[in-house]
């Protein structure tokens, strides 16, 4: 699984998000996975309760449901995880993002 795209500075009507791509031939289960976002001096941790990523498919981890104001066609899809946070603490540069199972 790879991080395909990061939206650190969204429009004010949207939110921060991370797009994942499962580049393998196996199903990726992100159940009980933590995302660690490190900046210059602080690490933030966000928990993913459940997400199944099929082979050769994409998923999005979004800070809030404001994500759907930019991508309304994705509402109701299983591969979108909304964390109900104000943001993901992403900056334009210098982030380290780690997924821990």
Quick overview:
About 5% of the residues lie in helices and about 40% in strands. With about 100 residues, the protein is mostly beta strands.
User: What sort of overall outline do the alpha carbons produce when their principal axes are compared?
Assistant: globular
* Percent helix range: under 10%
- The beta-strand count equals 9
Q: Estimate the mean pLDDT confidence.
A: 93
Distance between the termini: 13 Å
Task: Count the DSSP helices.
Answer: 1
**Structural class determined from secondary elements:** mainly beta
Round the Cα radius of gyration to an integer and report it.
13 Å
Strand content: 35-45%
Tell me the major beta sheet.
Answer: 4 strands, mixed
Query: Which H/E pattern describes the elements?
Result: EEEEEEEHEE
Task: Describe the protein in words.
The protein is mainly beta. Helices cover 4% and strands 40% of the residues. It has one helix and nine strands, in the order βββββββαββ. The protein has one helix at 67-70; strands at residues 2-7, 17-21, 28-29, 33-38, 43-48, 52-53, 58-62, 80-82, 96-100. The strands form three sheets. Strands 1-2-7-8 form a four-stranded mixed beta sheet, with no helix packed on it. A hairpin with a 4-residue loop joins strand 4 (33-38) and strand 5. The model has no long low-confidence stretch (mean pLDDT 93).
Task: Provide the fold topology.
Layout: E1 2-7, E2 17-21, E3 28-29, E4 33-38, E5 43-48, E6 52-53, E7 58-62, H1 67-70, E8 80-82, E9 96-100
């Amino acid at each position: 699984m790879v991080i395909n795209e990061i939206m650190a500075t969204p429009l004010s009507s949207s939110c921060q998000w991370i797009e994942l791509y499962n580049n393998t031939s196996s199903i990726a289960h992100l159940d009980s996975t933590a995302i660690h976002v490190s900046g210059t001096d602080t690490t933030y941790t966000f928990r993913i309760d459940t997400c199944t990523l099929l082979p050769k498919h994409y998923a999005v981890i979004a800070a809030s449901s404001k994500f759907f104001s930019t991508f309304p066609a994705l509402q109701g899809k299983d591969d979108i995880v909304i964390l109900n946070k104000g943001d993901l603490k992403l900056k334009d540069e210098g982030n380290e993002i780690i997924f821990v199972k």
